[in-house]
Amino acid sequence: MEPGRRHPGELEWLRDFSEMAAKEQKSLLVRYRLLDVLLQKLGVMKAAIEESLSARSPLEHYEEVEKQLREKWEEELAAAVEAEYRRQRADLLALVQRWLRDVWVLALASSDMNELLNFPQLPATAQVARRISPALAVENLQTLESTQRLLHTNVQESLALEVGLLKLQL
Question: Cβ-count burial of 159 within 10 angstroms (0-12 exposed, 13-18 middle, 19+ buried)?
């Protein structure tokens, strides 16, 4: 995601996400908490999209319309919400992927590599990088890429995210 396309609060959300991932406890419960944080963020995003697009929909401006036209507008609204949600979800997962790339860069590096990092201001990145090998960091990137590809299919979102996050080695 380009820096100009960031939504408000994303860096703060990523900071919280990375700090949770950096906790010493590497249990399944921690990964489920990460999943919960991600799903909550996605839920808030989808609600905001629905609110924004619904406010601009003709459904909000014309109460007296024939049933067929109303159904068409409802279908168009649902499609627009889903398309925008998928775009923003991809942007959020790309943000996580960029953070995982930073973990990989730091896992590889024996010296300070801040100039190569997407998020040098997140200290939790280095904590995670010290705990895992470069090979595991690459596996994390591949896992997230695979999860993103799955999400462009008809797979159930929560299941794909659960499987993807549980595979991460943090």
Answer: exposed
